[in-house]
Design a protein that fits this description.
The structure is a single chain. By secondary structure, this protein is an alpha+beta fold. It has 13 helices and 15 strands. Strands 1, 3, 4, 8, 9, 10, 12, 14 and 15 form a nine-stranded mixed sheet that branches. Strands 2-13 form a two-stranded antiparallel sheet. Strands 5-11 form a two-stranded antiparallel ribbon. A hairpin with a 2-residue loop joins β6 and β7. α2 runs antiparallel to α10. The radius of gyration is 31 Å and the shape is elongated. The two termini are 28 Å apart.
Length: 409
């Protein structure tokens, strides 16, 4: 058995001549455990919000999205896109045209994003799961084009599930110059009609801005005949997602970007990762403060074991081994605190998942969910455990060497 570790373990669990040392050691473990528990719970809450937001986006975002590197649109019959459509792993491929426009309904108006999609869009996504109203997903009928707005946009424009008047859409013409004396000539104008439904993604990016319509309408409005903004893909069940994505990237080369659902919402998830990182850094500082208790405990222990140190030296223990005894003492306090804190954190996370102990607000219906979401990721447990060990080691390294040097001199 490792000699310094054996002695350190005896010191940690045996009674000291001064009872206060045992109390301070216990306080040190509790302090580290509480800080560790706070890290565990906080990071798990951030994971919960991350997973919650991701689940909302999956209802309308495709599994993979291919977009041009340069410009807004590209020819729909591009050979690379044709080759991608023909891959055996592709189940559904949908062309889209997307751009900004002005929507006017009665006396209200709003800047919107018109997204034109093909009829198989409901096979590509879970759009049917987020539709509200008495109608169904429909983009056109005969010579009429339908528009499905987000629920917040419908509120802004004063529309219900079914709007009884046409929704006027205006977009700048791609050719010609703006004549201020006759500005109407500089805009393309077309009308959308109600299919009797709205969509509710529960994300303002979509609910407050987007209108889904047929790709024919979007191409006509924006003057993009034969063009597309993106090719959206759904894979066949059982396909290797990473393998297919890698193959499509190889086909695209430098001409197209291939984005999965997280990359399509890169800005949102990047902000959430930064927030999680900042929380981790701040709580690590709190952990460092908690580790100062370990320094006090070890300082008193070194003084209390002064006679033992003399005995150990007489028995042949080197100064290095004696220093390692107290270093092991600090590491064991950190390790025990880490294990206890992670255990308590996991228990609290489970209780929050099962019972929703901490709610988001007192007003019913004010939030999408009633309680803070929690999701425990194994990599966070590993990160927290080693963070506690490293912080604990660094916190006690200099004080132990300093006090031991004075004691052994």
């Amino acid at each position: 058995m490792n000699f310094p570790f054996f002695i350190a373990r005896r010191y940690l669990f045996s009674k000291k001549s001064t009872h206060a040392i045992n109390v301070i050691s216990g306080i040190s473990i509790i302090g580290v455990a509480v800080a560790t528990m706070a890290l565990m719970v906080t990071l798990s809450v951030f994971n919960g919000f991350h997973d919650l937001v991701a689940s909302f986006f999956t209802d309308i975002d495709p599994q993979l999205k291919v977009v041009p590197v340069e410009g807004k649109t590209v020819a729909a019959d591009d050979p690379i896109l044709t080759e991608i459509r023909q891959l055996p792993q592709i189940d559904v491929a949908t062309e889209t045209v997307e751009d900004m426009a002005l929507a006017i309904y009665k006396d209200r108006q709003a800047t919107v994003v018109i997204k034109g999609v093909e009829d198989n869009f409901q096979q590509l996504t879970h759009i049917n799961d987020i539709l509200l109203g008495n109608g169904e997903f429909c983009l056109h009928a005969a010579d009429m084009d339908y528009g499905i707005p987000g629920i917040r946009l419908a509120e802004i424009l004063g529309m219900g599930y079914t709007y009884d008047e046409p929704l006027h859409i205006y977009a700048p013409r791609r050719e010609g110059q703006l004549d201020m004396a006759n500005p109407e000539e500089a805009f393309e104008e077309d009308d959308l009609y109600s299919p009797g439904v709205l969509f509710n993604v529960k994300q303002s990016k979509y609910d407050q801005k987007y209108i889904l319509t047929s790709i024919a309408f979007a191409r006509r409005l924006f003057g993009q005949q034969g063009m597309l903004s993106s090719l959206e893909l759904r894979l066949k069940p059982g396909s290797s997602f990473d393998g297919v994505k890698k193959e499509i990237k190889r086909l695209c080369g430098d001409k197209f970007l291939v984005k999965d659902r997280f990359e399509q919402q890169d800005d949102t998830f990047k902000i959430m990762k930064i927030e999680k990182l900042i929380a981790y850094i701040f709580l690590t500082f709190i952990l460092m403060v908690a580790c100062f208790n370990i320094i006090g405990s070890l300082s008193m222990l070194i003084i209390d074991k002064k006679d033992d140190v003399v005995t150990l030296r007489n028995l042949g223990a080197s100064d290095k081994q004696i220093v390692r005894i107290f270093l092991f003492e600090g590491r064991m306090i950190s390790a025990i605190g880490a294990i206890v804190g992670i255990g308590l954190g996991l228990l609290l996370c489970w209780a929050q998942q099962q019972f929703g102990l901490v709610g988001l607000g007192s007003s019913s219906g004010s939030f999408i969910i009633d309680a803070y979401p929690v999701s425990v990721h194994p990599e966070d447990i590993i990160l927290i455990f080693f963070t506690v060990l490293i912080v604990g080691f660094l916190a006690v390294w200099y004080p132990v060497h300093y006090f031991a040097k004075r004691l052994l001199s």
